[in-house]
Amino acid sequence: MSGRFAFSKGLKEVRFLFCQTGEHSAATRSFLLRNYPAMKKDNPATPILIRDASGTPPKVYARFEFGKEKSQSLEGLSDQQIEETVSSLVKNSS
Q: What are the Ribosomal protein/NADH dehydrogenase domain coordinates in residue numbering (predicted)?
């Protein structure tokens, strides 16, 4: 895939965790509202899970082949920084 959010071939799942009302998750909510359609369009077979729960700090998880999982905190990041963080995480399976 040549899209902006083309995931690596070894990526099996992406999970976003955040608070549905907290200010610390506002940039994550904004990022997902703006970019979820593009991510899903570029990667229709990869599950993109969105988990919101009160008081949960924003974080993204990427699960790769053989159960390998990486995560990155999104707390305190701007919308643009979140985009860079997610892009880096989902393209780098090593």
A: 20-93
Separation between Cα atoms, residue 65 and residue 31, nearest integer Å: 26
The answer to whether 9 and 47 have CB atoms below 8 angstroms apart is: no
Q: In Å, what is the CA distance from 23 to each residue of 8, 18, 37, 85?
A: 31, 10, 23, 19
| Reported pTM | 0.90
* 82 closest CA partner among 20, 14, 35, 12: 35
User: pLDDT tens across 2-16, in order?
Assistant: 467 788 889 999 999
* Contact between residue 44 and residue 10 where contact means Cβ atoms under 8 Å apart: no
Query: How many helices and strands in the chain, by DSSP H and E?
Result: 2, 4
pLDDT beyond 60 at 1: no
Is the predicted pLDDT of residue 61 greater than 70, yes or no? yes
